[in-house]
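INFO  loader      accepted 1 record
INFO  loader      residues=255
INFO  predictor   begin
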Amino acid sequence: MPYLEIDDFNIYYEIRGSGPALTFAHGASGNRLMWWQQIPEFEKDYTCISFDHRGWGSSVDDANNIKTSQFASDLKALLDFLEIDKTAIVCQSMGGITGLNFSLKYPEMVSALVLADTTGGVGEQIVVDLLKNASPPDHPTRRALTDSFIANEPALTLLYEEIGLLNPKRERSAVSSIFRDTSGPGKDTLKAVDIPIMFLVGASDLIFPPNVIEEVSKLFTNPTYHVIPESAHASHFEQPGIFNDHLKTFLSKVM
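INFO  predictor   done
INFO  writer      dumping tokens
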């Protein structure tokens, strides 16, 4: 199994396909397996890199000492090891913190950034205030998937849950608080980002509702923004066809 030793832990990664680099950063409810409906499609034209964040999936670390501030540095170490000079980054939920922080720290290494169902941890007050009104269900599956998907796709719903069970158990607050931190990057920093960026959000996302993501998109110069119908927080999982089509179109224009 491919691992890279980084200081006090080993990061697990996988590489498939060939072509320009395309890196996938998963959310807190999943791991690199959550991209099973994207990577087989994009490995035809891209070198697809997926990995488990430290403390998730097969990247074993102390689950009680996870710091999202380390994620960008972890990704930098992995890409350096793989001798990848530039990559597009596709992020979902918590992975947006990785992608946005990496893009701010190492803009020369990023060809494009896709933030799906995530604010990326921006600290602008208006975004933090809007998130106070978000009221997602307590049940983790119902936080991520629409009721209709759960009812009509029991096998895929079970798969979603089983992928998440591969992660160590941790309190939800271990990552959720970072999205409500006003010390995150603000509009002055974000307006200066000179990287093609696309926002995707599920129409029924109750964690980061479309109105919140639209407000985040306005903090950037010339963003692309799409709402994905009939999906909630895991739009890449519920509506992979629509998600992938938006991603293909975007990447074809910027890479």
